[in-house]
Each structure stands twice: as C-alpha cells, then as structure tokens.
Design a protein that fits this description.
single chain; 367 residues; Alpha-Beta Plaits; Elongation Factor Tu (Ef-tu), domain 3; 6-stranded mixed beta sheet; 6-stranded antiparallel β-barrel; 8 helices; 19% helix; globular
C-alpha cells in the first residue's frame, strides 16, 4: 500500500496526475510540467512536501551526538537558523542529505522521504549519550510556497514580518490561523518558504494559500517541475546524483563538510580523499543541440572513451536547452570542457559549465 499525505484527496480533486514516489502516492503534475515550472520562476508555485521525514533530536547530549554523525558544524548553528548537512558512512558514502533546524528544545532533522526509515535506524545505532530521537513525520505536514511572489502571497495570511526573515532562517507564527514553523528555505533555487505544522490542518492551510495565491498567478506544482527546478539550480537529488557510493567531495558538496571540526563518521575517509584528490567529480553540462541526457547514459570523451555517467537530465524550460549532471573523471571535469553524451549509441556534444544553470531569486544576509 502506498502512503498518502493529508492532501492526497485535494490533489486528486484538482486533477493532478498521481504517481508512486519513494513509497508515496504523490502528484507529478497538475496543469503540466512546463507551465508549473515557468510559473514558479516568474510568479509562485505551491508544493505538498508532507512525504518528507521530520526527526526530532533532543536531550542534554543532542548537539554533541549529532555533531558526531553530520558533516557540517552544528556548533555554529544558532536558534532560529537552519543548516544543510550530510549523514555519511565510515567510508564517506552519503546516507542522506538533510536540513537541520535549531529549535529551543533541540534539533529538527528534515530527511528525504525514501530514506526516513533508513535514517532512523542509522541514528538509533549511532547517537551516543543522553539523547532522545522522535519520528514526527506522520504528525507533520509540510507545504512549500516558492517563487518571486512567495513572500507577497504568504504575507497575506500571517502577521509575521516576512521581510525580516532571510534564507535558512525560521520563525514561529500563525498562517491562516494555524500555528506553523515558517522557514525561508526551498528546493527550487527561488525565494520561498516551507511551512511545518500539524498534519490535520493541512487542507485548511493549502486552501487558504490557494485562495490568496491564485489571483496573483500561483499554481499547485508537482514532482515533475520540482525536479526540473532543482536541476536548473544545480541542486543534487538523492538516489540520482548522490547516494552511498558517492562522497560529498565528489559531489561538489565540500562546503558542507567541516573537516576541521571534531571527529565525525566519515571524516577520516574524506580527509584521505581530499589529500589524494577525488577520482571523479559531479559536473553540470549543457547540450549543444537537442537530446535529453537521461540517468545512466554514458559520458564519453572526444575519442569515444567512456569517462563517466549521467545522473540527472532534462529539458530546461528556462534556458530552452537540454541540460544535465553527471560524474566524470576529475582530470576531465573542468568548466568549458567538451564531452559527449551517449544517447542510445549516438554521441551528442555538450559543454561542462561552472555554477548553476539558472540564477534564481534568494534573500540572503549580506552582513
């Protein structure tokens, strides 16, 4: 039996096409991937992310225990802030990439839906000391509002001054009369918010947001556009671009690995890899002509030798070009390099680029 979010019937009533995703029945599209994608880039879109896992870690030793299993430095995380981090195996392979929120009572970990049970088991085995781990996933709804008009739309339903909230910051407040944790985070490369609240209030919050957002052009958005949006922003997807066979250094996530902090699981392997040099790197590339690079397609050099593999690929609705990401030998991963994607036996040229495919709108502190 597939799991269902509290908004399952709302999606079906709206005509969403439903698919299986990580054990959940989720909307893949409503009006269409291209329309939904472009609306998020120019106006706003709303996402049901209630399938994600929420784990609460508390107790006197919570910070030290989590510090020992995550790659980022929790000692720098202040209350009211969020931090991107990674759970690693001893060999440096990625168990999951997560968000960590510092709450008054402890730390809230937001994990990938398909990894929730695996993460819980791993944390139960690894967390040391006087620590309590609670799975709050079933009782928590998560709705995201993303796009240039996200603040204007959400502000209509809350008395919180959203212009005082910056990227990776959160606060508590009512949205449509429902107590929420309001976070300025997202997975689209655009400005936006993620709302965490009691699952039984999901329909009320969703309908209230649709009521104020629809006149401004906001639309509900499914997993299809969520994937193309995150790809344009060069954000990695677990199970495609990162997994237990890849390390954060290979995936270009070294910024979130603080090797100078005290011992954490995977540190020694990552230190060794940094010293030796990574054998491969995750690169972003733009196809020179038409041809969508699909996951698993070989990447080749000028001579036709296989030098890597595609991990994500799609048509970019913003650039109107085919784009992708994949691992290639580190010596051949420089921006500007020409590679060839083997699309069913035909070698299609592409160019490796630096940075994101599309620069979205974000609201970061400058001081």
């Amino acid at each position: 039996m597939l799991k269902r979010t509290p908004l399952n019937e709302v999606h079906k009533a709206a005509g969403a096409k439903m698919v299986e995703f990580g054990g959940w029945e989720m909307p893949v599209q409503y009006s269409g991937v291209l329309v939904e994608h472009r609306t998020v880039r120019t106006k706003a879109g709303m996402f049901d992310l209630s399938h994600m896992g929420e784990l609460m870690v508390s107790g006197p030793d919570a910070m030290q225990a989590l510090q020992a299993v995550t790659t980022n430095d929790l000692s720098t995380l202040e209350e009211g802030r969020a931090q991107y981090s990674i759970l690693c195996l001893p060999n440096g392979g990625i168990i999951d990439d997560i968000l960590v929120y510092r709450l008054p009572e402890g730390y809230l970990l937001v994990v990938n839906a398909a990894n929730t049970e695996k993460d819980i088991k791993w944390l139960q085995e690894q967390l040391k000391g006087d620590v309590k781990l609670e799975d709050r996933s079933a009782e928590t709804a998560l709705i995201a509002v993303q796009g240039p008009l996200a603040e204007e739309i959400l502000q209509k339903l809350t008395s919180i001054s959203l212009d005082e909230l910056y990227s990776f910051e959160w606060t508590s407040g009512d949205v449509a009369g429902v107590a929420c944790m309001i976070s300025r985070t997202g997975y689209t490369g655009e400005d936006g918010f993620e709302l965490y609240f009691a699952a039984e209030r999901a329909v009320k919050v969703w309908e209230a947001l649709m009521e104020v957002g629809t006149p401004l052009g906001m639309v509900p958005v499914g997993l299809g556009a969520r994937d193309t949006l995150r790809l344009e922003a060069r954000l990695t997807l677990y199970g495609n671009d990162i997994d237990e066979t890849t390390t954060p250094l290979e995936a270009g996530l070294g910024f979130f690995v603080k090797l100078d902090k005290p011992e954490f699981i995977g540190r020694e392997a990552l230190l060794a890899q940094r010293e030796e040099g990574v054998p491969r790197r995750l690169v972003a590339f733009v196809m020179e002509g038409r041809g969508i690079p699909r996951k698993g397609y070989p990447i080749r050099d000028e001579q036709g030798n296989e030098i890597g593999v595609v991990t994500s690929g799609s048509f970019s609705p913003t650039l109107e070009k085919d784009i992708g990401m994949g691992y290639v030998k580190a010596s051949l991963a420089d921006a500007g390099s020409r590679i060839f994607i083997d699309i069913r036996g035909k070698y299609r040229p592409a160019e490796i680029i630096k940075g994101r495919f599309v620069q979205g709108h974000t609201r970061r502190r400058t001081g």
